[in-house]
Write a structure and sequence with these properties.
It contains 19 helices and no strands. By secondary structure, it is mainly alpha-helical. The longest helix is centred in the middle third of the chain and has 57 residues. This is Type II secretion system protein GspF domain-containing protein.
């Protein structure tokens, strides 16, 4: 059990190219590791990076190890609320950078991908020599914090609605089970009691199966969840593009990916001043296979010399926003920066509304099915009760 807990705390450090000797539980105590894994919020991540950039300076930049050493010392001398977590983070990054890991790589398994992209950009030569690099990075960090918190809030809302949908269906199955037991009890006393009553036998059978084999039902639900999650991140082809238009879990993931991709591009292109091709490469390094597929489409269209509005239209945007992009393209917005401005102007709210609508639609459908099931069971039970009284 302890091994599984440690494995969860470590996360997928191998995929982040972090040596096993430098995993979270190898460097920190279990308490420190748990504190980071469960409580290192987007705001604290931004706060940590602002501290790092401030101590690092701009003209005569300090080395990462020196900066982290200073931060760790200052945190240990402080009694501010939440500083214990910052001590653990600085300790972890200090050990990793001492062993030769680049800072953005050392951050990969504990920071948001938006922040790791910013730090990777900050280490580039062009950014180091930029006169307003510090200001750009500060703005980028604030924007990344806002975007990450916004996406996390939407994901929590979607997750809540999905859980509520499953619970409503489960509740209807429990009701069907109870209705079945009531029916069988009356049937045993009077075999003719259902002679003139329409009994929902199929609903009873389903309710009995779900409740009697609850562990199997739970295993089926978990398996379906893991399968859909894997398909969300890894299934990429033309058929997937079709399913993205009507299968609710794919629609939700598509819009969340759209938020991640366009937020990342905005950070790197508009704030950190990356070229489009470089921004796509950097973003792709931290993206899922599905997101990389769309980024590759953007890269291909960039190579073909298409307008910026066409480069961004890969299928991640709601239909209304796609139309807005097309109109902007016809009106002269040909660059990627101009296209991103169009997306950010009203695109975020449209994507968030589309996400909310889709998740709410699933909840309403599940609630309707649950209500219909409960109505069928309740009506049958009411008629059976009347029959048992001889009414």
């Amino acid at each position: 059990m302890l091994d599984k807990f440690e494995s969860w705390l470590d996360g997928d450090f191998k995929a982040k190219k972090i040596p096993a000797a430098l995993s979270i539980t190898s460097v920190l105590t279990l308490r420190e590791a748990f504190s980071i894994r469960r409580g290192f919020s987007q705001k604290q991540q931004a706060q940590f990076l602002m501290h790092f950039l401030s101590i690092q300076g701009q003209k005569d930049k300090k080395e990462n190890v020196e900066v982290l050493t200073i931060m760790n010392r200052l945190y240990q001398d402080s009694d501010a609320i939440g500083v214990a977590r910052l001590i653990a983070v600085s300790k972890l990054l200090l050990e990793r950078t001492k062993e030769g890991l680049q800072l953005h790589r050392a951050m990969a398994d504990i920071f948001s991908s938006s922040f790791t992209m910013i730090i990777r950009a900050a280490a580039s030569t062009s950014q180091s020599e930029s006169a307003d690099a510090q200001e750009n990075l500060n703005i980028a960090i604030k924007q990344a914090t806002f975007s990450a918190i916004e996406v996390a809030k939407v994901q929590r809302s979607v997750r809540f609605k999905m859980v509520a949908s499953i619970l409503s269906l489960w509740g209807s199955m429990v009701a069907a089970k109870k209705g079945s037991e009531y029916y069988l009890a009356l049937k045993a006393e009077n075999p003719e009691i259902d002679r003139f009553i329409d009994i929902p036998h199929n609903v009873y059978l389903l309710g009995n199966f779900v409740v009697d084999y609850s562990y199997l039902s739970l295993a089926i639900i978990i398996s379906a969840y893991l399968t859909i999650r894997w398909l969300n991140e890894n299934w990429v082809n033309e058929k997937r593009m079709e399913w993205d238009q009507f299968f609710p879990p794919f629609i939700i993931y598509k819009y969340i990916s759209g938020l991640n991709v366009f937020s990342g591009l905005t950070l790197l292109i508009s704030y950190v001043q990356y070229e489009s091709s470089d921004a796509i490469k950097v973003l792709g390094a931290a993206a899922t296979k599905y997101e990389r597929y769309h980024l590759q489409l953007m890269s291909d269209r960039l190579s073909e010399g298409r307008r910026g509005t066409e480069q961004l239209d890969t299928g991640l945007l709601p239909k209304q926003l796609r139309l807005t992009l097309q109109i902007a393209g016809e009106g002269g917005a040909t660059g990627v920066r101009e296209a991103l401005e169009v997306v950010n102007a009203g695109g975020r709210s449209l994507i968030l509304k589309a996400l909310s609508y889709t998740s709410t639609f699933i909840l309403v459908v599940c609630a309707f099915i649950s209500g219909l099931t409960a109505l069928m069971v309740g009506a049958a039970s009411a008629f059976l009760f009347q029959a048992s009284l001889g009414i």
